[in-house]
Amino acid sequence: MKRSPQNRFKCVFPAKSANESFARMIASAFVAQLDPRVDELADLKTAVSEAVTNVIVHAYAGTDIPPEERVVIMSGELREGRRIAVTVKDRGKGIEDVKKAREPLFTTSAAEERSGMGFTVMETFADTVKVASRPGKGTSVRLYKRFT
Ligand SMILES: Nc1ncnc2c1ncn2[C@@H]1O[C@H](COP(=O)(O)OP(=O)(O)OP(=O)(O)O)[C@@H](O)[C@H]1O
Ligand SMILES: [Mg+2]
After folding, report:
1. Average pLDDT in the 56-84 region?
2. pLDDT tens column, 78-119
3. Which residues are CB-neighbours of 10 under 8 A, at least 6 positions away?
4. Which of 50, 70, 77, 91 does the annotation list as catalytic?
5. Are strands 83-90 and 71-79 parallel, antiparallel or unpaired?
6. Is the CB of 119 inside a 6 Å radius of any atom of ligand 1?
7. How many domains does the chain have?
8. Which ligand is closest to the CA of 72, given by its number?
């Protein structure tokens, strides 16, 4: 049986670059209750930042989704054993081939000088990264991290 989280949050905000730092702040504020180590906090913020940047940059690009529906849905849970799970979701175009998208250096935005390292960074700085995506429906990226 899955135990309910000790604490959680959910928030929705526009997928605008101004909200990238906002998302980092939310993650920091939520994790503050664990009095995290500075380096572990920085790692989580870096991973969250990549996930949110992907929504801002990719999720709605080239779609006819109206501006008011271009959102980031961010949620988090604190679980037993100082484990944090942060989910960054969108209702955008989705990813055709998640396995390929997760490969280092894979990008669909080479022209915009993206390096294709976002997912690799997430994998480096979170303990586990889970990606679920449906073309035309959206993407959900789950970042798990255990704090010492
Ligand atoms: N939320 C999303 N919605 C749609 N496509 C996405 C989303 N997140 C990632 N992708 C796709 O996955 C690819 C790889 O993402 P990744 O973050 O690794 O690299 P990038 O964003 O292209 O470059 P970088 O993160 O280094 O600036 C992207 O180029 C994009 O095609
Ligand atoms: Mg990226």
Report:
1. 97
2. 999 999 999 999 999 999 999 999 999 999 998 888 999 999
3. 73, 74, 75, 76
4. 50
5. antiparallel
6. yes
7. 1
8. 1
